[in-house]
Amino acid sequence: MRLVVVNDVSVVLGGATKVAMQCIEAGIAAGIDCSVLVGDDGEGVRTSFPAAKVTSLGERPLRDGVRLLDVIDRNYNCRAYEALDNMLAEGDEETVVHVHGWSQILSPSIFHALARHRARVIVTAHDFFLNCPNGGYLNFRTGEVCHYQPLSAACLCSNCDKRNYVHKLWRLGRMLTQRSAGQAFWNRVEVILAHENMEPYLSSAGLKHFRTLRTPCKPLAAEPVKAWLNDRALFLGRMTWEKGVRTLAEALIRTGRTATLIGQGPLLDEMQHALPHCYVPGWLEDSEVQRIAAEARFFLMPSLMPEPYGLVAAEAMMSGIPVIVSSNALIAEEVARNGAGLVFESGNAASLADKMAMMDSVATVRRLSEGAYEYGKRIAPSGDEWRRRLIEIYQRPMSWGVKGEEVGSLPEGFQVIH
């Protein structure tokens, strides 16, 4: 068999690209002939995986600045279509194509190329771009989770985009381009979910085949943390509105509490000016993040959007650091059920402040810290288990619709959804 991994970029700046690189690594280690299509210059893959055959477009992602031509190219990138079509023309019957990110460079044109071939198509849903025009099921104007049917009249009329309504209309056009690959194509696409609770958000897109394979992660700190002996509140993530950093800032200002906020993003300068009493350094090296995590009393994940997984929150729990998560996070229910942290009302700074105040109790933090550490042992597969399951998916596809297949043999963190 041949594996083709498809992703917008080759440099790891987020979770989707990190997982894409892990898929390449797992495929090569299993002796699979591995090819890669990326929209940037491809140097990140060429450097890390010399054995992989890389096709690169040499283009820039939308987040690096929008050009006039992007209005067309990022809706339907002809170069991406031709590149993938040519790769599959070499032989597609024994090929598995694993798609990760496409919204920044490659565009929905890749699905039109895939629809022309018999290659097996797997898409890992790192977000909701398979169904939602803005990718987040979030109204960026109100901060509320959107419950409209994607592409419905209500969706069309909703000014939910983070930029403006014209951009929303462009995103709707891109979604129509994506859907126009044809229902016969989407009926055969297999979707890997980062979290099982993503499935209800995606099932209305005409997708039929779902399985959950949670992303492996490692503890945030080098050693288990006795959080009740520490006093640092910690946030680690992108400094964007949808990640809830303004809600966090309001709660910190309201209470006068200090915290460490690590991460890059468009709101970094705003956070640095709004929180002079906090440590807001931008991005830090992994070794420094580890050191700071070892001093954490609790971890904050204040996302406004339905956060698909919350990888960093899982890494915190694996370290024994209790978490305070937004009610919109898809892991919120399991955090509360396993005594691994607290849940606050999404977007409500007063609610967040109340939960932070509860962390003043040594007994509460110790109980949650111990609960987080125990649950962290089960929240996600180990790297070895994840690689084994991934290669099984590539080499021996499950029989969709066979109730309960292999479920009994799967550790927590894996689930077959029918």
From TrEMBL:
<feature type="domain" description="Glycosyltransferase subfamily 4-like N-terminal">
    <location>
        <begin position="14"/>
        <end position="129"/>
    </location>
</feature>
<protein>
    <submittedName>
        <fullName>Glycosyltransferase family 4 protein</fullName>
    </submittedName>
</protein>
<dbReference type="InterPro" id="IPR050194">
    <property type="entry name" value="Glycosyltransferase_grp1"/>
</dbReference>
<dbReference type="InterPro" id="IPR028098">
    <property type="entry name" value="Glyco_trans_4-like_N"/>
</dbReference>
<dbReference type="Pfam" id="PF13579">
    <property type="entry name" value="Glyco_trans_4_4"/>
</dbReference>
<dbReference type="Pfam" id="PF13692">
    <property type="entry name" value="Glyco_trans_1_4"/>
</dbReference>
